[in-house]
Amino acid sequence: MNQSHNKLKSLYISTYCFCSEHPLVFCHYYVFKKYKRLISRKRVLEVAMSRFVRSILLLFMLRLVCAKHVNLSITNNLEGNEDLSIHCKSKDDDLGLHLLHVNQTFGWGFGTNIFWKTLFFCSFQWGKGLLLYYDVYKEIRDFDLCENCHWHIHKAGPCRYESCTLESCVCKCYKWN
Could you give the CA distance from residue 113 to residue 92 in angstroms, rounded to a whole number? Predict the structure, then answer.
C-alpha cells in the first residue's frame, strides 16, 4: 500500500471518462503532486457547468452590445406616377404584399442578428412589368451604413442616402438583383 501511495505522489495522472449523468461533459480526474488529492466527479461537473453558464451569459452580453435595432422604409418614387407592389420578407418574417402609390412609404423595424446573418429582401413590380428583387437589408453590408435605412424605388433600381454628415448626404443607387 505504501509503495502505491509513493507512486501516486510522484505521478501526474490524467484519465478521461464519460459521465453517464451528463453525456456532453467529459470528466477529467487529476492527481496533483502538490495537493495529493483527487478532484471529484461532482467538482468537475460544477466547474464545467459554471463555464457553460459563463459562456451563455457572455453570448447574451454580446447580443446586447453588438446587435442593434434597425428601422427600414421603402418609398415609391417611380417615374411616370405608377403604383408599386412590394412583398418583403426575411428567413423568419413575411411582411406581406403592399401596394404603394406615388410617394407613399412602407416601413418596419427589426433587431439584427449577432452572427451577422440578418437579411430582408423584397420583390418589386409596377404595371405589368417584370418582378424585380433586391436585398434591402443585408447585415454584413449595411450594419455600419444605416440604422434608419430609407430606400427610394426608381425604375433603374433602389436608391438610398449614405455617408451622411451634418452638411450633406450622398444618394447611392444600386442595380436590381
Answer: 12
Let me know: does 9 contact 33? Beta carbons within 8 Å.
yes
Residue ranges of the chain with pLDDT lower than 50?
Answer: 4-37
Tens of pLDDT along 42-76? 666 666 667 777 777 777 676 666 678 899 999 99
Would you state the cell numbers that stand for residue 37, as one nine-digit string? Answer: 488529492
Pairing of strands 119-126, 148-154: unpaired
- CB neighbour list of residue 97: distance below 8 Å, 6 or more residues apart: 85, 86, 87
Tens digit of pLDDT for each residue in 149-164?
Answer: 999 999 999 999 887 7
Q: Which residues contact 31 (CB under 8 A, 6 or more apart)?
A: 8, 11, 12, 13, 37, 38
Q: What is the CATH number of domain 69-173?
A: 2.60.40.10
C-alpha to C-alpha distance for 124 and 158, rounded to whole angstroms: 10
Cα separation, 118 vs 141, in Å, equals: 10
Q: Is the pTM of this model over 0.90?
A: no
Please report, for the chain, the start and end positions of each structural domain, with discontinuous segments joined by +.
2-66, 69-173
Q: Check if the beta carbon of residue 18 is closer than 8 Å to that of residue 25.
A: no
